[in-house]
Write a structure and sequence with these properties.
The complex is a heterodimer.
Chain A: E1 5-9, H1 14-24, E2 31-36, E3 48-51, H2 58-65, E4 70-73, H3 80-83, H4 86-106, E5 112-118, H5 146-163, E6 168-174, E7 176-178, H6 185-191, E8 194-198, E9 204-205, E10 207-209, H7 210-222, E11 227-231, E12 237-238, H8 239-245, E13 249-253, H9 255-267, H10 275-283, H11 290-296, H12 304-315, H13 323-348
Parallel strand pairs in A: 1-2, 1-4, 2-3, 4-5, 5-6, 6-11, 7-10, 8-13
Antiparallel strand pairs in A: 9-12
Chain B: H1 13-18, H2 35-51, H3 64-82, E1 86-88, E2 99-103, H4 111-123, E3 130-134, H5 144-150, E4 153-155, H6 158-166, E5 170-173, H7 178-181, H8 198-206, E6 210-216, E7 226-227, H9 229-235, E8 241-242, E9 262-265, H10 282-306
Parallel strand pairs in B: 1-9, 2-5, 2-6, 3-4, 3-5
Antiparallel strand pairs in B: 6-9, 7-8
The chains are: A alpha/beta, B alpha/beta.
Chain lengths: 349, 312
Amino acid sequence: MQPRVVLVTGVSRYLGSKLTALLQADPAIERVIGVDVVPPRGDLGRAEFVRADIRNPIIAKVIASAEVDTVVHMSVIATPFGAGGRTAMKEINVIGTMQLLAACQKASSLRKLVVKSTTAVYGSDSRDAALYVEDMEPKGLSRSGYSKDAFEVEGYVRGFGRRRPDVDVTVLRFANFMGPHVDSPLTRYFALPLVPTVLGFDPRIQFVHDDDGIEVLRRAVLEDHPGTFNVAGDGVLLLSQAIRRAGRVEAPIPQPAVTVVGSLMRRAGLVDFSPEQMRFLQFGRGVDTAKLHTEFGYRPAYSTRQAFDDFVAAQLRSRVITGDRAQAVEHAVLTAADRIGHHGRSAHA
Amino acid sequence: MPEARVIPLDGRHGRDAEATPVAEPPPAPPAERPDWERRLAGALAFLRRRVTGDYEVDEFGFDQELNDSVLMPLARPLFERYFRVEVRGIDNIPAEGGALLVANHSGTIPVDAVMTGLAVLDHHPAHRHIRMLAADLVFTLPFIAPLARKGGHTLACNPDAERLMSSGELVAVWPEGFKGIGKPFSDRYRLQRFGRGGFVTAALRTGVPIVPCSIIGAEEIYPIIGNAKSLARLFGLPYLPITPFFPWLGPIGVLPLPSKWIIEFGEPVPTADYGAAAADDPMLVFNLTDQVRETIQQTLYRLLMQRRSVFF
């Protein structure tokens, strides 16, 4: 189905604005309507902007009057930082989604719903399988926070899908975004000179490059891919490995002190890490992307490692340990050894 | 001993994009260089890769370079000199493709898993790495959890086992679990219950052969004569062993006894002919589980009869 009128929520955030810019450049799409509570920073071209909260009844009116056929829901947020606290964040995420879906259910013009979700819906636990497949249930879901929100949001989306079987629902579970333009708690975490980790744990982590993320969203809008898909770059990095690749130094913290250090860092405004993200730093998470490759038909251009390297090259300037420095040291030691060895050989001669 | 593997220096585009290299990579040492210099160059290159994070781990967290360069060399003297492990029937392990090793478990701490891994890596013509299935407790323990993943363990659950086997890996499982490894010395070489047969289901679904593996010698390394149950419960452990030497002799009590080991790999049990649907036939699963268990038990008795003494 070729979308005619597309509504994008969360348009003022980086991914939302990038996607909107791409969609408005497509002449086959008649109108692109962006919704957010703050005006977008960049130029959105011919896309229209509605300054409203998705909890506002005006959204239902916009969807009905513009005869929106495709809704892209991208305003489930990960950090209470920008939202003004955890309560407000939950309000925006869960209640906002409910209101938006209520409006969607009433809209007879609607044909497609694309939801930007997260692999955080799988939680993070020691009993997790190595890789989560889309239909697996989470083992250890935190009782609050982003992953709980995302889990509930997906629940409401499933409910919507049952009530409106004529609407194609695509749920995209993205791994953590990484890339030159990404600004998230995790990118700020890797930018710390001393990177705190949980002592005795080294989780596996996966990233998706923002270019790949936007491309997947764009294809989900333009092509028909009903279903739920994990989206992550190929391969995994260990947290310790990522810290080393970032040229940072690890600062392991004993587990009983982790919560205290986390809240201290939050208060100091260094990194806004919630307890569930602490669990992520302890147990990590891996998802299987075979369904994305085969059924959706997209293979991310960047692997997990390449996405991370791209972020490091663009955002982390002052690195303590770099490959070049390590190579210089290696070269110096070998040259010295060669000299000693040569000396020894000529002395024998 | 397998040769050190060459790890390609890929994934460099990020650094290359950022700056021109300061120093050229050190030239490959010419042949006339003394051995120590070549070894130094190898060690330095290894260190540089570790420090800069320039190595590969697979999606289960298995770090082959760390295994081949550090972990296995550390365990090798134990295998060759201390336990003097004798490996039999190694050709029963296929040279390639998925397979499932099923072995008896004993020894208080899972030294038998490490030794089995070395037996296959060093003695099998294809020098295969085994991928082990571990109990969930392992992944809750600090230091142990990341080491287990790097060493090739993953959680003993069907999705992981099937993923590994269908991608052609050699998977090893100790179905007795804590019941086997933590049993008292008086029960030595008596197989405990083989779980619920989950490993057979996984093998049937992926159609890989089951290779029974019998390990002699591990029972005697830490003879358990008592179990501090209430203390174990306090620490959240399945058992807390008391041996003739531990905890009485302190750190010396942690030394394993130098028993003589035999690891015998038995004839593979093919599962491909049953078809994947057979995994849903509980009777077949029970029968296969019993067959494998009985094979291992009989092999254990036979090997014990042949053994001259525990230590020689």
